[in-house]
Amino acid sequence: xxxxxxxRKSCLSWLSTTALSLLxxxxxxxxxxxxxxxxxxxxSAASTCAYNLLTFYTxxxxxxxxGNLPQPYYWWEAGAMFGILIDYYYYTNDSQYNDLVTxxxxxxxxxxxxxxxxxxxxxxxxxxxxxxxxxxxxAAEQKFPDPPSTKPQWLALAQAVFNDQASRWDNQYxxxxxxxxxxxxxxxxxxxxxxxxxxxxxxGARLALYTGNDTYAQWAEKTFNxxxxxxxxxxxxxFYDGAHxxxxxxxxxxVQWTYNAGVFLLGASVMYNYTNGSPLWQExxxxxxxxxxxxxxxxxxxxxxxxxCEPPNTCDTDNYSFKAYLARxxxxxxxxxxxxxxxxxxxxxxxxxxxxxQCSGGTNGQMCGMKWTQGSTWDGTQGVGQQMxxxxxxxxxxxxxxxxxxxxxxxxxxxGNAAAGGGGGISTSNPAxxxxxxxxxxxxxxGILTCLVLISVIGCSWWMIA
Length: 466
Known about the structure:
Elements: H1 10-21, H2 39-54, H3 75-92, H4 98-107, H5 126-141, H6 154-166, E1 191-193, H7 194-211, H8 214-229, E2 242-244, H9 258-274, H10 279-291, E3 296-298, E4 301-304, H11 322-334, H12 341-358, H13 384-395, H14 435-456
Helix pairs in contact: 2-3, 2-13, 3-4, 3-5, 3-13, 5-6, 5-7, 6-7, 7-8, 7-9, 9-10, 9-11, 11-12, 11-13, 12-13
């Protein structure tokens, strides 16, 4: 994933946004109809958003690669898209896209069944892998149909991603944490950011609850504490983008993105549930939730917006999708920490209403823009991120219609493998959190993997980090 200020595609995003803005207001039909009092209306609106989302997907075309989105989208966003389509099935019980999702999710698992695909070496970071792992975790929790028995299973895939990332925990700089990038030759390897560590925290909390293995919870606690100690999260629970290892993480980039708040909120809510209502985790959940209010406008009230880039019109392709993740994780958190529902649902309802109105662009008059605060005046943008955002916030209004996500004790059917992936596995008795074990795994594992990739990937030279 490439984020501001490290983006390598801002010019392309600007050009496409500028071109599309010329078409703003030239819609042919009305925006999507949405009645929040009618579950069928919500499902119908979500169905329209999902259909329009998949008009951007080419992985099911003859000769294309399943699980990939075309340019300008990076590989991680396909994983995010499949996670949202798994949510779509959970909320609506509409199974028409399930085969497509399963095909894409399984095609991209890589040789070790851990979403480390060799053809993504030039761009894959810990956050990218994390989004695929969280999608697999959602499939296990929401009882998305299990893959054939001869294929990798959802829970095992999530565990494999977690194991890989646990082995990369880096104590050499900043007293811990995951780096943004996995490979030393990629730009951003010297950066530790909130989203990479947030994905790891989120996945650890959810694996702890699903499996009952406290090892995952200990890692989640460790990651949350590190994020706080290194000041990527401040005393008021605002999450900042990241900092550089070369300066021992002293140069905090204080940009705030919606998805950082969302990924930590869901993880904290799951930890609250896992710890049977721990006052500490309750305080953390409420702290994060209160800090999240920065992403909801006062005019119009309670409508979500990307505060860092929407007002100055600087959002890039990645940024267009971030609200989708806050939307889905805000509402998912309710199932684990029900006390947040009175705060969350007014935000969700106002944002969904506004997002449906913003789905008024494109040649069909129902493509969704990003700026929900503009209501039915289409902002002139369209794409995967905008569709995911609208889909996520609209279907979130069905949260009271669905069951609590399952665990292996409450009806979960997905098969796990605690030793999955290339990270050495998670112990069932010893959390393996000692600095010696972690340092050896992260340094040796990263070194060996980097050497193998450098040998095997043709043209692996200086231009790969440009």
